[in-house]
Amino acid sequence: MIIIIITFTVGAGEVANFAAYAFAPATLVTPLGALSVLVSAVFSSYFLQEVLPLAGMAGCVLCVLGCSVMVLHAPQDEVVASLSDMEEKLKDPGFLTYAVGVVVISLILSLVVGPRYGHKNVLVYTVICSGIGSLSVACVKGLDIAIKELVRGQAVLMDPLFWLLLLCLVVCVSVQINYLNKALDIFNTSIVTPVYYVLFTTAVMTCSALLFREWHQLPPESVAGTLSGFLTIGLGIFLLHAIKDISLSPDSLPPFLRRQQETSGLQLLLPCTKRGRKINPGTTGQSAQRQYWGNF
User: Fold this and answer.
1) 29, 105, 234, 288: which has the fewest C-beta neighbours closer than 10 Å?
2) Cα separations (Å) of 174 from 53, 196, 218, 223?
């Protein structure tokens, strides 16, 4: 029963994410995916009793602030009303150059670089799934337009572009999931998640800007607001994942700070030694404290 509920909720979330691209620019929808990381962190803390450290709480706050800034300054994509308009967009030299570059770089990374350095560098596989994933977002935008036309009663299923976009979407998503799983199998999730989020969002913003010209008439203050919101979300994701398992106990301090702490601990104990409670020479910090209290 639990598996059915999880499958249903994940499927519903993906359908909602798919539908979001039909009503908002990809530059806005993709960064807001950070909210899923925020919700999972809060739910795991509440239902699974996982401890959310101070850095994680700060990351949640930064994610909310960054998303709010991006919503206020998000660009508007150029209106594409039909598949014929989408076809013209796909023929744009800038987008074609980007798409060919992504495919070529992905092939080089997967066939040449991956076997030698894929297990050493987290960027190898995350770059592949991020670049190919940005092309899948372009396919999703095209399919959203096709579904709108289908609802209006037009013969979209007879258009070869519809099936081409669907085929490209299946291939891109398969490649994306495959290499993301490879990265997660080799590296820790706390490393892969922030790196993948930044690379994937950057690739989607670049692809969407070339294809739909979302930044074409955006004022400078909105550009600055969008970029600052994205960087704020990225920092929040980093705090939520990359340093959530870092211990902040005294043992994790640098050696010179530990020596200072031990010295200060001895200074606190010295007045007590004058009252007849001896501490053996050479003991410092916590050892001196245990020896002192053992004299009682």
Assistant:
1) 105
2) 35, 16, 34, 33
Instruction: Measure the CA–CA gap between 233 and 35, rounded to whole angstroms.
Output: 9
Judge if 117 and 201 occupy the same domain.
Answer: yes
Q: Judge if 61 and 129 occupy the same domain.
A: no
Look at the block and give the residue holding tokens 């950070």.
Answer: 34
- Predicted pLDDT of residue 187: 83
CA distance 194 to 3: 27
Q: Are residues 39 and 99 in the same domain?
A: no
Residue 187, SS3 per DSSP: coil
106 and 140 share one domain: yes
Low-confidence ranges of the chain (pLDDT < 70): 1-11, 13-14, 22, 34, 37, 41, 44, 48, 50, 76-79, 241-296
Task: Say how many residues make up the chain.
Answer: 296
C-alpha 191/C-alpha 25 separation (Å) is 28
pLDDT in tens, 46-58: 776 767 777 777 8
Q: Who's near 70: CB < 8 A, 6+ residues apart? A: 28, 31, 32, 225, 226, 229, 230, 233
Residues 6+ apart with CB under 8 A from 279: 269, 273, 288, 291, 292
What is the value of pTM for the model shown?
Answer: 0.71
What is the residue range of 195's domain? 79-217
